[in-house]
Design brief:
Layout lengths: L1 H14 L7 H19 L6 E3 L4 E2 L3 E7 L3 E3 L29 H11 L8 H4 L10 H6 L2 E6 L12 E7 L6 E3 L5 E7 L31 H19 L9 H12 L1 E8 L3 E2 L52 H15 L2 E4 L10 E4 L1 H4 L28 H7 L9 E6 L8 E4 L5 H4 L31 H11 L6 H11 L3
Antiparallel strand pairs: 1-4, 2-3, 3-9, 5-8, 6-13, 7-8, 9-10, 11-12, 13-14
Bound molecules: heme C (HEC) (2 copies).
Length: 498
């Protein structure tokens, strides 16, 4: 039973990310289909994945390490807790660094003829009612996230803006229920349910860490536990369409399972083993010993232990700087570019105001040592959800032109109150703005942890970057970096070893 539902996801990931539209893929699909039949037909006693079991991706192999000694795939994270056959692992697959790669979604679509629970209409289709349309999950790995628009009549803290949909490609951008409650549909990538001990916000818009923030060393462990418990309840009720929340035992099993996990790239086709080879410290093995507390190495000078910001955020490939293996040397150069290459940050709500510019680096925003999220909650709007059609900032336009944005609704938010009254925003994802109701939060979302990237393409919250080259091309234009083609390749080579 268990393997009947789990095996297609597991195998599709194991066999990896085969580019679309070739005969190799057809052969792989046949092979996977045979394997699924064979393995589901036979009883398998072992319900653990060994630590560091390698999963193929385009750059090499990724892997997960659990501090419990192995990855137990029999617990509630892998069980059907709702009514539509989904488990947490439907969207957080071990083969995909506990995220979901679009290639995995595609493979599952073809293997199961669209019947995998991933494609449940509630949020695996562009709209929860009407005709089923799985294109966004199949092509971009996107899940529909419906967020209630803060009510603007009787609430003590009314939103500072009104919201309308100016582009509504699927017909459910903004819906109103019988109570008059509005819900906005956004389309977001599953964030990895691993490396969670390094978080400073839970969910792209931080909505699961509002009440118990992850901004203080003393309360961090307890708040993270509380947030992840509530997150698991909400995920079960929404994604799995459960009629009741999981039991408290199931919840604590889910949260301790997740918190024990670290995932990262393990092996690179050209550089070889990423951990322990000539002093390298890549791979998931090193992560349990990586120090972290809220505010560590804060780039804005707020480290609670008074440590000054060190831009050398990633140090795992320093030992390869003089390597005679050309790929290893390129990866080490890429790490240095990430740490120190000057870039010009402008028009980033949450960081800059007005026409202010900041001379920074990638690590101004990605400052948590060797993991690369921001160590304090700092949601930002770097422009990834803006619409080319409505955008006026030339740097954002140039950046967006490097991406393949999915077809998504565009919302118009008009600020009616507060210091930004009169301003108008166009975005496919208002981010934290829909949680707080504040104009200053519109479009702001967190930067994810940058480990295990190769296992979970595409990138950015809306999957707009099909691969890491597009990510780098975006930044090169967006923040006017002026990288040479060699530097861009070095940066890509580095990012895909994380
Ligand atoms: C249908 C797909 C789907 C299922 C099923 C699902 N998730 Fe998620 N998960 C997502 C998406 C999409 C996001 C990001 C949503 C957002 O930011 O608004 C996410 C975010 C998360 C995060 C936040 C990570 C971070 O960096 O903030 C955690 C933790 C998580 N999920 C755990 C779970 C657990 C536990 C379950 C099972 C109870 C589960 N998920 C089921 C799609 C899914
Ligand atoms: C001004 C702040 C800022 C700077 C500078 C910055 N980033 Fe980001 N980064 C973010 C934010 C915010 C996101 C999330 C955006 C989204 O999901 O749409 C992000 C997302 C990413 C992602 C995608 C992660 C994922 O899981 O989808 C990668 C990769 C990345 N950044 C790499 C870089 C590199 C490389 C540089 C330097 C060239 C850089 N960033 C500079 C803020 C920044």
């Amino acid at each position: 039973m268990f393997y009947q539902t789990r095996m297609p996801e597991f195998l599709s990931g194991l066999l990896g990310k085969i580019p679309a539209h070739n005969s190799l893929r057809r052969r792989v699909i046949v092979l996977v289909a045979i394997l699924v039949i064979v393995t589901t037909g036979s009883a398998i006693a072992d319900i653990y994945l060994p630590n560091l079991l390698p999963f193929l991706d385009l750059a090499g192999f990724s892997a997960t390490n659990s501090t419990t000694g192995s990855v137990d795939i029999s617990g509630p994270f892998f069980q059907t807790l709702g009514t539509n056959g989904r488990t947490c692992a439907t969207c957080h697959a071990a083969s995909d660094g506990f995220g979901l790669s679009a290639v995995d979604a595609q493979l599952r679509y073809y293997i199961t003829n669209g019947k995998d629970p991933l494609f449940a209409q509630v949020d695996g289709s562009t709209c929860p009612t009407g005709p089923v349309n799985n294109t966004l999950v199949v092509n971009n790995g996107l899940i529909r996230i419906g967020i209630q628009v803060p009510p603007n009549t009787t609430d003590a803290n009314p939103p500072q803006f009104t919201i309308t949909a100016v582009e509504d490609p699927y017909g459910c951008a903004l819906t109103t229920d019988s109570q008059g409650q509005q819900t906005a549909s956004m389309y977001r990538r599953p964030l990895p349910a691993t490396n969670l001990g390094f978080l400073s916000a839970v969910m792209f818009d931080g909505r699961e860490s509002v009440t118990y923030p992850l901004n203080n060393e003393q309360t961090f462990a307890a708040n993270l536990n509380t947030d992840l418990t509530q997150q698991a309840i909400d995920a079960t009720l929404t994604h799995a369409q459960a009629t009741q929340p999981p039991t408290s035992t199931q919840l604590s099993q889910i949260v301790s399972f997740e918190l024990a996990l670290n995932s990262a790239q393990l092996y690179d086709f050209f550089a070889g083993n990423l951990n322990g080879q000539k002093g390298s410290q890549g791979g998931p093995q090193f992560l349990p010993t990586q120090q972290y507390y809220p505010g560590i190495n804060d780039s804005l000078g707020g480290d609670p232990n008074g440590q000054p910001f060190n831009p050398n955020v990633f140090t795992i490939y320093t030992a390869w700087q003089n390597s005679r293996n050309s790929r290893q040397a390129s990866i080490a150069r890429g790490e240095q570019i990430f740490n120190t290459q000057a870039l010009t940050i402008s028009d980033v709500p949450g960081l800059t105001t007005g026409t202010q510019t900041i001379a920074g680096t990638c690590t101004t925003c990605h400052d948590a040592p060797n993991v690369g999220d921001h160590s304090f909650p700092l949601p930002l709007d770097i422009g990834t959800s803006h619409s080319l059609q409505y955008e006026t900032d030339p740097n954002i336009i140039a950046g967006l032109q490097q991406l393949q944005q999915p077809t998504a609704p565009v919302f118009e938010l008009v600020c009616t109150q507060g210091t930004q009254a009169g301003q108008v925003f166009y975005t496919s994802d208002p981010g934290k703005g829909l949680i707080s109701g504040q104009c200053s939060d519109i479009g702001r979302i967190k930067g994810p942890i940058l480990r295990g990237l190769a296992a979970r393409a595409p990138y950015f919250h809306n999957g707009a970057a099909a691969n890491l080259s597009q990510v780098v091309n975006f930044y090169n234009k967006r923040f006017q970096i002026g990288l040479s083609s060699q530097q861009m390749q070095d940066l890509v080579n580095f990012l895909q070893t994380l």
